[in-house]
Amino acid sequence: MDIEKVNSMDFGEFVDVFGNVIERCPLIAAAVWSQRPFSNLEDLEKHFFAFIDALPQSGQEGILRCHPDLAGRELQRGTLTAESQREQRSAGLTSLGADERLRLAELNAQYRARFGFPFVLAARLSDPAAVRRELARRLHRPPAQELRTALGEVKKIGHLRLAELLGAHPATL
Ligand SMILES: NC(=O)N[C@H]1NC(=O)NC1=O
User: Fold this and answer.
1) Which of 64, 66, 88 to mutate to test the pocket of ligand 1 (most atoms within 8 A of CB)?
2) Ligand 1 atom closest to 91 (CA)
3) How much distance in Å is there from the Cα of 122 to the middle of ligand 1?
4) Which residues contact 154 (CB under 8 A, 6 or more apart)?
5) For residues 9 and 17, is the Cβ–Cβ distance under 8 A?
6) pLDDT exceeding 70 applies to what percent of the chain?
7) What are residue 116's phi and psi, to 5 degrees?
8) Which of 47, 67, 140, 159 is catalytic?
9) Among 12, 105, 156, 168, which is disulfide-ready with 122 (CB 3.0 to 4.6 Å)?
10) What is the per-residue pLDDT for 16?
11) 2-16 residue pLDDT tens
């Protein structure tokens, strides 16, 4: 899909196509549509990220809370979004043994109890061992630093989703 096609979309089509660039936050795509035309992929992406950056902390935490756990109940139940399902599969999280799943569930629960939002990481750039390592490492960080890191991961996920939609090569992240 080229940028002219993106710029020609009406509101409904744009939100249908880009509504899940930020997981379960179609409101962001709805707001970004008003900023068209976009000059290229980077420009489009800039508007998604600027919206996130401009939110108060409660809104930024709200975005994180819209993310499903990695290897969590939603994966088990098959209720993930198509994008999240693909990402979690590509990280090998769909084929974990019961022990590994339990260990991740415990770490996810500890993380959520400490920070008040789920652990978020760009799964497509990861694998089960790295997810576990990062979870254990980030669990002990100061909350303000962790919020910044988690939002950086949301942007990596958004970048990869946008690049896929536009058929572009993702930047090295
Ligand atoms: N919790 C979390 O990081 N979820 C996400 N990560 C990712 O790559 N896709 C998701 O849904």
Assistant:
1) 88
2) 8
3) 6
4) 22, 23, 52, 63, 64, 67, 120
5) yes
6) 100
7) 85, 5
8) 67
9) 156
10) 98
11) 999 999 999 999 999
Rounded to the nearest angstrom, the distance between the alpha carbon of 84 and the centre of ligand 1 is 6
Q: How many helices and strands in the chain, by DSSP H and E?
A: 10, 0
Q: How far is the CA of 68 from the centre of ligand 1 (A)?
A: 6
Tens-place pLDDT, residues 52-84: 999 999 999 999 999 999 999 999 999 999 999
Query: Which domains, and CATH codes, for the chain?
Result: 3-61 (no CATH), 69-165 (1.10.3330.10)
The tokens for 8 are 């020609």
Please indicate whether residue 67 is annotated as part of the active site.
yes
